[in-house]
Amino acid sequence: MTATSHTASPRYVAPAAELPRIALLATGGTIAGSAPDATRTAGYQAGILGIQDLLSAVPALGGIAHIHAEQVAQIDSKDMSCALWQKLAARLNAVLSQPDVAGAVITHGTDTLEETAYYLHLTLNSHKPVVITAAMRPATALSADGPLNLLNAVRVAADPISGGRGVLVAVNNQIHCARDVVKTSTYAVDAFHSPEVGVLGWVQDDRVAFQRMPLQFHSVESEFVGITGELPAVEVVASYAGVSRIAVDALVEAGVRGIVVAGTGNGSLHVSLQQALDEAVQRGVTVVRASRVGSGHVMHNGAAPDDQYGFVSAGNLPPFKARVLLMLALQAGVPAERMQSLFENY
């Protein structure tokens, strides 16, 4: 792979040839955001700055890795799409297959980072380190968190110890597993956590350390590696006091292939919603019970409603990650009788 020339800033020093080669793929987000003045951490526009601007803010990268930079997209991550997931996965699989590439880093917005991370976690065909990073403050803000997060992400990707763990998320000096990490704050710098299971490890200065390995299937071991074709329509609905069946009925009529329901507590469903979802299953729609609660497991209920109505429980996957797995499973043609074991093993 030919290194990209970084001419945007005279401060950026080309790295030595013996350093690892890291592919850096930018997609926009707050880490590339710009506000009218340095005191604004809200009201900014995401994805304004290009990858060269991000690199020029972190000249220390030149001492860590030889960077190949690409601008894959330049969006606010609230506008992430399945098509862009597939484009990003295809590009990553291509660059990671090159022998001279040691790993990859993706800059991303925080709003849908956990969904993109999990999609890539299930579809990338490589044991090489892949690290997603982001920022809660725009690049123009006082004490912007993006530059340090980017530095740490490259450091993690460049360290061979990071390989074989699937897609990682490096933010706020912590390293999270793509399957576990969720955004938990609208404004705090430490917005990302891995409820119950905790972080995989941490990075500070020149040290990268891990405490555990992910156990669920991912990357090379995943049956969804290299999956192609338009992903089937899967939507998310919620259960709450007084909920009607209107949304479920409309989605079934619209032809969705799957519905993930963010239930109360242990994925429990309002009686009216449960009836509508039961009828949806009878019409060929796959229904997965998740929870709107921020942590815990939705246990498979062998009596009701799961076995009785043909529902699948999501385990500890939150609703929006359960949607990612269900889309991939439906696209791959996973039969109904395997769906529950799939959610237990991924």
Automatic annotation (TrEMBL):
Substrate binds at residues 77, 110-111. Gene3D superfamilies: 3.40.50.40, L-asparaginase, N-terminal domain. GO terms for molecular function: asparaginase activity. InterPro entries: AsnASE_II, Asp/glu_Ase-like_sf, Asparaginase/glutaminase-like, Asparaginase/glutaminase_AS1, Asparaginase/glutaminase_AS2, Asparaginase_C, L-asparaginase_C, L-asparaginase_N. Residues 21-214 form the L-asparaginase N-terminal domain. Keywords: Hydrolase. One of its GO terms (biological process) is asparagine metabolic process. Pfam families: Asparaginase, Asparaginase_C. Residues 234-343 form the Asparaginase/glutaminase C-terminal domain. The active site is at 30, 30 (o-isoaspartyl threonine intermediate), 110. Belongs to the asparaginase 1 family. PANTHER family: 60 KDA LYSOPHOSPHOLIPASE, L-ASPARAGINASE. This is L-asparaginase. It comes from Pandoraea terrae.
